Amino acid sequence: IYQHYQKLSLGFYRRNNTGDLMNRATEDVNRVRMYVGPAVMYTINTFIRFAIVIVYMYTISPRLTLYTLLLL
User: What are the C-alpha distances in Å from 33 to residues 2, 23, 25, 36?
Assistant: First the structure.
């Protein structure tokens, strides 16, 4: 967004309020953060949960755990 704003003409900035432009940029950053933040947390949570489940499965039955992992 910043690079795009750098390429715009001076007339564009005369027609638009600085506050409106800053609001657009900040809102876009907030939306990306709200999308990426939970995705990263869910991914980490999934990997940790997967590791815990594999260890638990191994304590119950190592043979079945190995068969299951071979199918992945």
Answer: 17, 15, 12, 5
